[in-house]
Design goal:
Elements lengths: L13 H12 L7 E5 L5 H12 L5 E5 H13 L3 H9 L3 E5 L8 H16 L3 E6 L11 H7 L3 E5 L4 H14 L6 H10 L4 H4 L1
Helix pairs in contact: 1-2, 3-4, 3-5, 7-8
């Protein structure tokens, strides 16, 4: 259910939305597209929206960074690195969610670096999400951080009050709950941590 159609647009996420739409229409226009922001700000929603838009005509791989790490380590242990390479490098679009989790994992970073280079040089699309800018991720190799910032970097900010009310209204309608506007406004004013908590 995470599509562009049900992504609630506001001033805090407009650039991220526009860039994501552009990538879904013109692969490798921004390469990589790097979205970052706090927990529950809509990064995963946008990655899913890109993937759903592209999946009919492209080979799309969406994977959380922790899962990438698990698969890479398993491939090393079972001496199946060629299978791993073929699996990941055959994708037209690779999307890695929460990329900050590979920081400090030396072998995984090495594997991701080579996967990134292979896809990028082949003109394939890479989309990454993180909770912070690549340069602020501790124990991330400089050369990998350099690759990550080589495309378009977009920060998703906290939503303003109007956007929060619109998000709650949309959520209320999807649940078929007739919640009065003043109640939605009250919650939007009271909860400021993240969209997930708000919902």
């Amino acid at each position: 259910n995470k599509t562009f159609d049900n992504f609630i647009l506001g001033s805090s996420n407009k650039l991220a939305y526009e860039a994501s739409k552009k990538v879904s229409q013109d692969i490798s226009h921004y390469n990589p597209l790097y979205l970052y922001g706090g927990v529950g700000m809509g990064k995963t929603h946008l990655l899913n929206s890109i993937g759903l838009s592209l999946k009919d005509k492209n080979s799309v791989m969406f994977i959380p960074a922790e899962r990438f790490m698990y698969q890479f380590v398993r491939a090393l242990r079972q001496q199946e690195t060629m299978v791993f390479k073929e699996q990941f490098r055959s994708a037209d679009v690779l999307m890695v969610d929460d990329v900050q989790f590979i920081a400090g994992k030396e072998q995984t970073q090495e594997g991701f670096f080579h996967t990134f280079n292979s896809l990028s040089s082949a003109g394939k699309q890479i989309v990454l999400s993180s909770d912070r800018p690549a340069k602020e991720i501790e124990r991330l190799h400089d050369r990998l951080a350099s690759r990550m910032i080589g495309g378009l970097i977009v920060d998703i900010q906290q939503p303003d009050l109007e956007t929060k009310v619109a998000i709650l209204k949309s959520k209320s309608e999807s649940l078929q709950a007739n919640i009065p506007g003043e109640v939605l406004l009250y919650f939007a004013e009271q909860i400021s941590s993240n969209i997930r908590a708000l919902e």
